Amino acid sequence: RKEQLQLLATVEAITRDGVSFRLAGNISSVKDLEQVLHYGAEGAGLFRTEFLYMDRSSFPSEEEQFDIYRQVAEKAGRYSVVIRTLDIGGDKQLEYFELPEEDNPFLGYRAIRISLNSKEMFKTQLTAILRASAYGSLKIMLPMISSLEEVRQAKQILAEAKSDLDQRGIAYDDGIPVGVMIEVPAAAAIADLLAKEADFFSIGTNDLVQYVLAVDRMNETIAHMYQPFHPAVLRLLRQAITAGQDAGIPVSVCGELAGDEKAIPIWLYLGVRDLSMSPQSLLRVKHRILNAEASAGREAGANCYRLATGAEVEAELTRFAESCV
Ligand code: PEP
Ligand code: MG
């Protein structure tokens, strides 16, 4: 079965009636990139860079980061890699970087909030990404965005990093796309406004679900309430995706929901064709896409939007999944 799935690595992800998807991988290292490419991923839709910063005693230098980002740019070849800037805080700590003790770390000092407040650290990362962008197709993605100001500030710092590189006479991709993660409900609610400043959206369903349902994604006691198919989640997905589409920018999904084959009708219905997922989901999701009828999937997706509970939506999606085999 595993060997059979591996045969799909080189097959295009296309439904029976000709709707094609682009499946990319979520990675944390150069090695992960090699693995997802082996599974047929068309590049990486999420490179979680925090792992470069962990298990060490100081911040990685520009040179060290450049070396890794250049390797992923080169290894991805004709595909692109979306590099997400540092997303620490929440559950992720760095030994050498003192973060305040917080009652609610997931609602606290995290991700872009830290980057914008530690400008030199952020600029070092952006500079390393920019330098690597001369060696392949890279994109920059900003995590935990909840306001337009944050995007503008990040872009301002990126502009400074670019002009420093100009002065140093170092090449980079001046048109490197800057995208926004939609993972805080506020971002979904103002997606039309963010779309004016963002080159692309990528929806982080892991945090989006946690924040919109007020359900800690790590808390076992309330794990049953963590419902990715809750109508509130579906509505925010539709709002954000439609806003991106109306603005003419690419919209992809990179949270765990992208790797859940049950969710395919939702993507078909909402017009999402770009999914980025963990390595072990790639071939499973492709297998389901190959066996699906997009027209029936779209209908199932539309039905989901008429249902009132997460359980009902899940039942509808299960019904569709079982019709695919
Ligand atoms: C997400 O929140 O959906 C996401 C992809 O980011 P992470 O899982 O790294 O928080
Ligand atoms: Mg997240």
From TrEMBL:
Record-listed E.C. numbers: 2.7.3.9
| The PEP-utilising enzyme C-terminal domain, residue ranges | 3-292
Q: Could you say which enzyme class this protein belongs to? A: transferase
In terms of one coarse class, where is the protein primarily found?
Answer: cytoplasm
Please write the reaction equations for the catalytic activity of this protein.
L-histidyl-[protein] + phosphoenolpyruvate = N(pros)-phospho-L-histidyl-[protein] + pyruvate
* Keywords per UniProt: Cytoplasm, Kinase, Magnesium, Metal-binding, Phosphotransferase system, Sugar transport, Transferase, Transport
Keyword Metal-binding found: yes
Compartments it resides in:
Cytoplasm
List cofactor names only.
Mg(2+)
Annotated family: Belongs to the PEP-utilizing enzyme family.
Q: What does this protein do?
A: General (non sugar-specific) component of the phosphoenolpyruvate-dependent sugar phosphotransferase system (sugar PTS). This major carbohydrate active-transport system catalyzes the phosphorylation of incoming sugar substrates concomitantly with their translocation across the cell membrane. Enzyme I transfers the phosphoryl group from phosphoenolpyruvate (PEP) to the phosphoryl carrier protein (HPr).
Q: Please report the name of this protein according to its UniProt entry.
A: Phosphoenolpyruvate-protein phosphotransferase
Whose protein is this, by species? Paenibacillus woosongensis
Could you tell me the gene encoding this protein?
A: ptsI
